[in-house]
Amino acid sequence: MIRHVFLLSTQPSATGEDIERLAAGIRALPERLSEIRRYEVIRDLGRQAGNAALLLIADFDSFDAYESYRDHPEHLKLIDDFVKPISAGFNRLQFETTMDEGAA
Fold it and tell me: Which residues form a coiled coil (predicted)?
């Protein structure tokens, strides 16, 4: 299994509504993209300055499935419409894991 982790920092001008619109768009992707096995979107509590605003953890059966998701027009539209306008930078990582959802 391939796990994709995405951590987004936002511009100071980004509002809570901007971040929630992005989170809602991300949460809607699994209904449209069959490659996604598990998808979790987490917003920062907003209680500590300098923290990232949003974390995405996504699982895929293979790297090919991840690449299909990465290059999918729905995913690219979400990036253009919601990520780029508020992004101050991001980090991402893909790695292999044998952990299933719910495993300790």
Answer: none
Residue 96 is assigned to a structural domain of this protein? no
Domains contained in the chain, number: 1
C-alpha distances (whole Å) from 24 to each of 8, 29, 47 are 15, 9, 21
Q: Which residues contact 32 (CB under 8 A, 6 or more apart)?
A: 74
**What's 28's domain CATH number?**
3.30.70.100
The C-alpha atoms of residue 37 and residue 43 are separated, in whole angstroms, by 20
Report pLDDT for 85: 96
Task: Look up the domain containing 39 and give its range.
Answer: 2-89
Q: Hey, CA dihedral for 87, 91, 95, 100, is it positive or negative?
A: negative
